[in-house]
Write a structure and sequence with these properties.
The protein has eight helices and no strands. It is mainly α and 175 residues long. Helix 3 packs antiparallel against helix 4 (63-77), helix 3 runs parallel beside helix 6 (116-131) and helix 6 (116-131) packs antiparallel against helix 7 (138-150). The termini are far apart.
Length: 175
């Protein structure tokens, strides 16, 4: 299954516009993404979706949060910057449009695919995205806690990671 199909964004066959190098570049990047091994593509897609889920939990995805998501997806997914940008944009769009119906399904898929270490890394990355605008809101914190529970991480692990971001917690009067 392609990453585009997983995210529900598979392109339909239609006529090409002539002379658009931007569209050709985009098609090339998407084609490269489509060549990823299916399990890896599903892991990267679900990881990016969960980053978007937390960023959008306060109904505002800041430019800082988007930049942090792109950096994380590039690093965790081992993707070139152009591919990471596309993956984050697709995940952001999908979460914004269908989040309320797909949140649990995507989280369950991530839980199935990820090792304990990858789940811990996810929680740390979720806090990093939330803190990108210098404040982890209570809504974002609650969403991260919910995801930690859905991927079956113990409260101690969640609390330990959260403590490393205490300077950004809005509940403690930070920003």
């Amino acid at each position: 299954m392609s990453i585009l199909k997983f995210l529900g964004l598979e392109k339909k066959k239609e006529g090409r516009s002539q002379g658009s190098s931007d569209i050709e570049t985009l098609r090339k990047i998407v084609s490269e993404l489509d060549q990823l091994e299916p399990e890896r593509a599903r892991y990267i897609a679900s990881f990016a979706y969960l980053l978007s889920r937390v960023a959008h939990s306060d109904l505002d995805i800041s430019d800082e949060e988007v930049s942090e998501m792109e950096r994380i997806v590039q690093q965790i997914g081992g993707l070139p910057e152009e591919q990471a940008v596309i993956v984050v944009q697709m995940a952001k769009t999908r979460e914004t449009l269908f989040g309320s119906t797909e949140n649990y399904l995507v989280t369950r898929e991530f839980e199935r695919l990820a090792s304990r270490e990858q789940k811990l890394a996810l929680i740390e990355c979720l806090f990093a995205v939330s803190a990108a605008d210098d404040s982890v809101s209570t809504v974002e914190d609650n969403e991260i806690r919910q995801i930690a529970e859905e991927v079956h991480l113990d409260r101690e692990s969640y609390t330990s990671i959260k403590a490393t971001f205490r300077d950004h917690l809005a509940v403690l009067g930070k920003k």
